[in-house]
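[step 3/7] fold_predict: job queued, chain A
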Amino acid sequence: MRSLLRTFVPALLGGLIAAWTSMAWTSAALADKASAPIPAATLALMAARGTHAASPIVLRAYKKESEIEVWKRNAAGRYVPIKTYPICRWSGQLGPKTKSGDRQTPEGFYTVAKSQMNPNSRYYLSFDIGYPNAYDRAHGSTGSAVMVHGICSSMGCFAMTDAVAGELFSIAREAFAGGQSAFQFQSFPFRMTAANMARHRTDPNIAFWRQLKEGSDRFEATGEEPVVSVAGGRYAFAPSRDAAKEAAFTALHKDETDRIAALVDEGAAAVRTTYSDGGQHAFWAARIRQGFPVGDVSRPEALAYAGQEVVMIPARRRLPPPPPVPEAVWAAWIGTASPSLTMRVAEFLPPYAAEPPRLTAPVTRYAQTWPSLARAAIEAALPPPDIAPTQPLIEKVAQR
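[step 4/7] structure written:
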């Protein structure tokens, strides 16, 4: 028994020590990646825009362009763009997520609190964007655990690769450390420009996208994080407390609405953009072809059919109306000294220059009212017509 214990106990202790060492190393590795500093180049971009690592952030995602933007609040209290990151993989189609398992990457306005940060993610580092939000729940949408994470595989998430996910994680971490309780994550189908809205005007989601467009315009006009709520199943946005900023939003939104109407009136094409299963930024597509490691890539075969446009209404070219003729020009055209008045056929007299016609002499003879041919025949100017009877048709046929 003692020999057995002498053999077993050291082996058990060695195993425990090895396991503890492995766990300690793993924990240290996790702590290291979760606490990695923001890259110096990104900090330099922040400084150039008048902000710093501890300032609040807003993230904006665009599915069609496969990009996520980081915006930070500067010293003047306005959010400014800092850096744009390429998305390695998102899934589904353009449009909102509606149910669990539909592979749709969500669209809308979401909130990310510190508790939604996951340093122990299976996909390097991640944070939950907060789907479903109040709007999604109002429409009966289901699902959960929609993340921004590492590697390049998506089932409704924003897959960024490990390096990009780590940088986004560090930027959010420092914003929380600076006192921000939660940041807004805005997800759009595409950049919400007037041209894109006009181009996708026949899409079944256009009414929903117009709501997102209002929130996007408000953010860009005011530089403030939109205060979002849901009323009657629609997104609602509180007006800015700053009257000047609210006026700036009103002007921008009206200009954008008018621009969309003008593009449609000018004959802009309408399309539906379709996907087999989501898309990928061209940057990552090129790096993957070069052999750059990005981890697992979900459904790579589907990327060949990403972003196919189906024309619903062909573009029509509408020529602009000719400019109006200046008064000085058309006055010269019709004036008595106009060169055009001297370029006439000889003996031509314009009506306005002729004397008013006098009354003609009344008709005094009946012959004056006859047709000209009849008058010529009567006056022997034309020979009399030959009215000799022609050969009957029956005889002509019989002679053949």
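[step 5/7] annotate
Residues 20-26 have pLDDT under 50 and may be disordered.
The first strand starts at residue 57 and ends at 62.
exit 0
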